[in-house]
Here is the input.
Amino acid sequence: MGGMMVAIVSTVAYLGLEARGVEVQVQLIPGLPAFNMVGLADKAVGESRERVRGAVAGMGLALPPKRIAVNLSPADLPKEGSHFDLPVALGLLAAMGVVDAEALADYVVVGELGLDGRLAPSPGVLLAALHAAETGRGLICPAAQGSEAAWGGGIEVVAAPDLLSLLNHLKGEQLLAPPQPGGVEEGRSGPDLRQVKGQEVAKRALEIAAAGAHNLLFCGPPGAGKSLMAACLPGILPPLDPAEALEVSMVQSVAGTLPGGTLTRARPFRSPHHSASMAALTGGGLRVKPGEVSLAHLGVLFLDELPEFGRAALDSLRQPLETGTVSVARANAHVTFPARVQLVAAMNPCRCGHLGDAGLACARAPRCAADYQAKVSGPLLDRIDLHVDVAAVSAADVKHGSMSEYRKLVGTTPSRLRRGRAAKRFVGHYNSGSRELSRKHAGPISMVFDPPIILRAAA
Here is the structure.
């Protein structure tokens, strides 16, 4: 290593759902005391100098009166996030001779440091664990995320509550117990179609959409049950298989929304407010994070009051709906997130919501309906396979309740269609990114619509 020792600690940088290896190189150089960090680090990484300084002082150690040089290699890769705190601290302690640098060579290290030396959670630990498994190393992470890291696949996970206990473990003085993987949540409680009164045409359309993974648009007056039926869709979809559950959990991990390392087999359901920006829907920001369309990956993205969304925000969904991915372009990096979603939207036929009702419609009908519906672009509507007109619920429907036998059918049919003969017939011909079935093999199946089918409720 030359005359002056360079301590090297392995960590990762996140680009979308990809964890790229990063070397934290620390060297103590004779000269005036300073703490310098280079390697295209963002503000959060640069601030780690003070957190590391405080954590080291909290253990009763003083920094050496030398120049501390920290290089994050490769230097041209953007480094974002507070998870660089712990590898920088361990690299510094290794350069000071407090911990053996060779003991750190077999680990990937991630974690945020507090001024008192405690290790705090940071997003993306599951991705770091998978990267460690690919490179044949173990993982050092905060204790709060040990159950999440344990899903990495048979790797050694050292989950420490604070920096001092981690050093004692590395020296063999106080061994930490290996964490166990978090639980698997089979499903979440949500609205049931038995709560929907009437609306047999709309419920039939919901069943078709669930069976064929079709995008769906409900159009009808307020109080017709559009939002309730959309919220019922995840409950009639088949559960995630293990590979899908891991993929969904990776998105949640990088977004920092994977509580307690618990994986779920329930399909995501995201319902952003209509004031959401383009970055909130598709991803972005100063530190690129997945948007709603990626957080709904392999699940349902519900856009209520569709025309009230910003035109630019809605049109930004056209490419993800077609390709199943979102690419966020920045000057220094291009980040790609998965976005294979089933879009469900709901809207009123006009601004007042009562088009066709002579007693409640405004004086501007039908002109107001044309202006209101024109807020949604044609190319976006073209990506929605099922357009359903939902009528107002009558008093008779409310009085007589719902059809339990129909609910039983709806609860079982989508899983059967997706897993049974219909799925086998189209194996190899279903593109999950663009949601297109090969027209050559479609035959008489009525779930392929081009142009979109329009289902209208009986008057």
Remarks:
- The longest strand covers residues 18-29.
- Residues 193-456 form a domain with the Rossmann fold fold (CATH 3.40.50.300).
